[in-house]
Amino acid sequence: MNKSVIKACSEILKEHFIKLNPADKQLSNFFRDNHHFGRRDRLCIAELYYGVIRNKRYLIENINNENPKKLAIIYLSLILGKSIRELSSFLDKQDLIWLKEKKSNKVEITKWASKFSLPDWLWEKFLVQYGQETSISLAQSLLLPANLNLRVNLLKEKDILKVLNSLISSIPELQNEIIKTNLSPISISLPRGTSIQKNLLFLDGLVEIQDEASQIITFLVNPKRGNMVADFCAGAGGKTLGISAMMKNTGRVYAFDISDNRLANLKKRLKRSGASNIVTHKIINENDTKIKRLRNKFDRVLVDAPCTGLGTLRRNPDLKWKHSLESLNELNIKQNLIISSASKLCKVGANLIYATCSLLKEENEDIVDNFLLKNKNFRILSPNSIFTKYGIPLNSDKYIKLTPDEHKTDGFFSVILERFE
């Protein structure tokens, strides 16, 4: 840590607070315009920047101030536990005087929502859904940064240990920190901040960046060779590529999305992956004519629905301030429409997999219950046979719920629905 790191972090935070850009985009823009920072300083800047954003409410209420530099300093002191002596090597005399005064007149934060830097409405939702003990554990886990997860591309390499050892050989300084994860049989974990985009394994398409929970959702699709599969909200295509690899490039995977940019990113990833059975389709909305023409055609339909993304707060800590009860209600309307439209693609005997990266039942169980109430020809299937098939150490008779405190993954929800008539 040094003065330039504090200064840089303050600049990025100031821009982030003013422009309200996504945190990762703001950081990326800063590094793009400031090439002189070395790898170590970049890591320090990113850690400090995200640390402040994760704990923003708690820090602001502690010092009654939204000054970016002061928030960074108090984060180093309160959250990371740096002493005045440690900080004196790179803080100005005036800042040290201010910090000493704040430490000697420490504010007592009593509200749980403030302690965990959550909006009040979200903390209340957690309490109602999970109870206080679990809510505290969950909220604490959401304040912790997440490691980088990679998915091994089965189209190019089936030997996971071979890829693991190649990664270790290519980044020897991290040899004790590159490990297989616990749930997905094809997932490898690296320390956060690891640069992988220029690694030959990534460039050659042997690995893709994908959170372990997201990989589990791909396994739940459980496609067979020659199937017709729809990824209804494909985004940049992480799950689409995973499904294609499971199908060994047979059959057809349709990737639908309303965003040209996201589909363009998928096309870039396609070249690297070696997948040849994916067709991308830009749609206007869930009732696009392309969707209507393909009704009753698919064996598997994945709906990774637009949601609050609150299960990804370890990676996207600013998301919690971009939502409200009003935006949640708007998303619920959209989620109901999307699952209803996607279900019409299913042929008899097909599976509809509904998933979100949300922790709220309003976006998960409630959407599924409402859908089943209106669609008596669908029923919930237990995922246990799929877990057994792929050696995934999970167990559930109904819903699949992953959380960062219990599973060390992003928060994810999913359910398998079968059209039986």
Describe the structure.
Helix content is 47%, strand content 15%. With 421 residues, it is an alpha/beta fold. The protein folds into 2 domains: 3-109, no CATH class; 212-419, 3-Layer(aba) Sandwich (Rossmann fold), CATH 3.40.50. Strands 5, 6, 7, 8, 9, 10, 11 and 12 form an 8-stranded mixed β-sheet that branches. The model has no long low-confidence stretch (mean pLDDT 94).
Features:
single chain, 421 residues, alpha/beta, 2 domains, four-stranded antiparallel β-sheet
Care to give the gist of this entry?
The protein has 421 residues and is of the alpha/beta class.
In percent, how much strand structure appears in the residues? 5-15%
Low-confidence segments, given as residue ranges, are: none
> What number of domains?
2
What's the N-to-C terminus distance? 63 Å
Radius of gyration: 23 Å
Question: Can you tell me the CATH architecture of the largest domain?
Answer: 3-Layer(aba) Sandwich
Q: What is the CATH topology classification name of the largest domain?
A: Rossmann fold
Helix content: 40-55%
Helix/strand class: alpha/beta
The CATH superfamily of the largest domain turns out to be Vaccinia Virus protein VP39
CATH class of the largest domain: Alpha Beta
- Overall strand count: 12
User: What overall geometry do the principal axes of the alpha carbons give?
Assistant: globular
Give me the number of helical elements.
20
Q: Which quaternary structure do these chains form? A: single chain
Average pLDDT score: 94
Task: Report the sheet with the most strands, covering strand number, pairing sense and barrel closure.
Answer: 8 strands, mixed
